[in-house]
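Before a colleague's protein record goes any further, I have to sign it off. Would you go through it and say whether the fold makes sense for this chain? Take the sequence as given and treat only the tokens as open to question. The record follows directly below this note.
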Amino acid sequence: MTDSIVLATDRHLKWHAFDPIERVLMLLCGVCLTGFTASTLIDVVTREVGHPLLSLQEVTSAFFIYGIFIGSAVATRRNDHLFLSAITEQMHGAIRRVVEVFNRLVVLCVGLAMVVFGWQNFLTGFGSFRMPSMLPIAYLYIAIPVCGALVALFAFEQIVNGWRNGFAAPQGEGPARDVGI
């Protein structure tokens, strides 16, 4: 097992410089999943014993929201969603390149739209407040443009590297995961 977090079959589509970003995002996903689970458990237990902590609902929703958006960004880099891979894997040559680039251009545009509209949403979020903490809801909305920027960055990375190296996995590369974290 090597120290890479990238699948051997996908290395030709990835820049080594972004591997630390992916590693941090994977770690943050784990933190969010753990935090969501723990805060939900504590919320249920405190309600059952008759002393609910209302602020736990805010904590739970924050972990959930950040986990979803961070997970979307890392899944984009890992080709785990947003791409029509089952269709393109059956294609070869120029038609595959066109479809792969088109798919990633769509994802890139979605990422850029998330940046633009997510930023607008973030700015308007300073006028709404979470109860009972009275924190502006903008602290939740910031996850949208950050996710969009990462999605766009990772889609761009794959377009460039796919154009240079081809989108198909190199011959002889099996599906073995190379996930030494």
